[in-house]
Amino acid sequence: MEHLQVTDLHVEFGGLRAVDGLTFDVAQGEILCLLGPNGAGKSTTLDLICGKTQPTGGSIRVNGVEVSRLLEFRRARLGIGRKFQVPSVYKDLTVIENLSVARSRRPGIWHALTRLSLRHSKDMDHILELVSLKDKSHDQAGNLSHGETQWLEIAMLLAQDSRLILMDEPTAGMTIQETQRTAEIFRSLSGSHTLVVVEHDMSFVRNVADRIIVMNRGTKLAEGSIEEIEANEDVKTAYLGH
Ligand SMILES: Nc1ncnc2c1ncn2[C@@H]1O[C@H](COP(=O)(O)OP(=O)(O)OP(=O)(O)O)[C@@H](O)[C@H]1O
């Protein structure tokens, strides 16, 4: 579980202010959904939090620790995990082998010790159960469906001990059933993990979000529950304007 505080965050790309004075908090164990029209700065915000992009100003704190100047791998070690739209699983390896690779990326020497490795294999079972892939643990990742591949990637983040998980359109391309299962997975992660999710599917957002932030032109336009967001006139205007 991680508490995230973003304060007055800025980034410019050749004069374009993609993120322009963004401030928000995410509580430990909370699921925050980021909405907004195309080009609002949602993906860039995730890039800034995970360290893929360096900010031109502002602060990003995780459990009180300033991370905004740290390199991406250092942030990963602090438990910040990013799931991209294109999955990065190893197709020739089995599901469980993919988890082992993810686990071996964890910091520290402890995972090398046998006693702890045993415990870890139990953790792995638990993780596979959580993402509904236990029956497929010895299947090649390349043979998984699109939805299962996305879940494997979430499982890999869990295996590498990410506690603040950032996801960009996790349900894109999923069937209705896969989307529903993904919502259940997210709800079971909430409480123990903090999630920031960029998502356009409103019924999914309705199912998973504890809170919603709508971005427009790099800044926060509105914040609240789904009911508050749907009733917000500024939000309606921003979407119609695009
Ligand atoms: N590396 C980059 N270099 C230059 N411009 C960029 C870069 N990354 C993003 N941008 C620009 O920053 C703005 C915000 O982009 P971003 O992808 O964050 O928006 P978004 O809200 O995620 O939109 P979408 O819903 O379309 O993915 C856009 O105008 C985009 O073209």
TrEMBL record:
Q: Does the keyword Transport apply?
A: yes
Record-given protein name:
Urea ABC transporter ATP-binding protein UrtD
User: What InterPro entries does the record point to?
Assistant: AAA+_ATPase, ABC_AA/LPS_Transport, ABC_transporter-like_ATP-bd, ABC_transptr_urea_ATP-bd_UrtD, P-loop_NTPase
**Any one GO molecular function term:** ATP binding
Gene3D superfamilies membership: P-loop containing nucleotide triphosphate hydrolases
The protein's UniProt keywords, in alphabetical order, are: ATP-binding, Nucleotide-binding, Transport
User: What positions does the domain ABC transporter occupy?
Assistant: 4-242
- What domain of life is recorded for the organism? Bacteria
Gene that specifies this protein: urtD
